[in-house]
Amino acid sequence: MKTKKKRTKKMIVYLLLRIFVVASLVFQLFQHNYHNVFLCVLTLVLFMIPTFVNKRFQIELPSVLEIIIILFIFSAEILGEVRNFYGTFQHWDTLLHTINGFLMAAIGLSLVDILNQSEKVNISLSPIFVCLVAFCFSMTVGVVWEFFEWGSDRILEQDMQKDRIVKTISSVELNPSGENVPLIIKDIKKTTIEGKVDNKAKTYVVKDGYLDLGINDTMKDLLVNCLGAMVFSVIGFFYIQNRDKSKVAKYFVPTVRKKA
To answer: What DSSP designation does 121 have?
Structure first.
């Protein structure tokens, strides 16, 4: 009975989110915003990943984990990109990267734990080592994503590594002596940018600071990813030691589906 209720709740979440995504897709088509149309289509495709994993690899995803993954995709693509929550809410990106670190650690732990319990694989890793692998897996995913953001910014001229305004910089490049000693500039009042936009000369003034091009954003993303990974690694350690007593990790750790 409980399993049936969980499936019903999961299907309701799927249905509501899909309806919202399709409505957004139609609206973006009327607005001729084909970039957002692509994001809506991509979201619908990504929604199918949990079901694909369930059927193709016989992996049982806990309902809580599956719903969070779907909500995460929706929050990142539709709310974040299409509805511009990244620009509207200051810590939206930070929240998603923290959750990503947590979820990827859960998935990393499950991958190793499944092998650890398999009779076909002759390995037996300690709980600490399994959690270390889970943490490293999560951080690797986070780093690869930052590589993707950097590549999109450099090659496709996007702004996935969001710019930030800072009031203090330390720069060796600006040191008039040319020595390898950073020149520390504080209380920056403005930054003037001169260049071309659509082959027309333009001048932009950034008030109250210096325009940082993505470094602070990248490091912040990796730090909160690290925080999320560390939190689940601790939870995962106690889960491996006391599986029957764990009340949290079981909602996030995928398992191999038992054969009938």
So the answer is: S
169, 184, 244 from 206: Cα distances, Å? 15, 19, 57
Range of the domain at 11: 1-89
pLDDT at position 75: 96
Quick: pLDDT tens for 15-26. 999 999 999 999
Domain boundary among the residues 175, 191, 212 is at 212
Is beta strand 169-171 parallel, antiparallel or unpaired with respect to 164-166? unpaired
Do 81 and 25 share a structural domain? Answer: yes
CA-derived radius of gyration, the chain? 23
The count of C-alpha atoms lying within 13 angstroms of the C-alpha of 242, restricted to the half-sphere facing its C-beta, is 7
The tens digit of pLDDT for each residue in 95-124 reads: 999 999 999 999 999 988 888 777 676 677
Are 143 and 227 members of one domain?
A: yes
Find out whether 138 and 228 touch, Cβ atoms under 8 Å: yes
What's the total number of domains in the chain?
Answer: 3
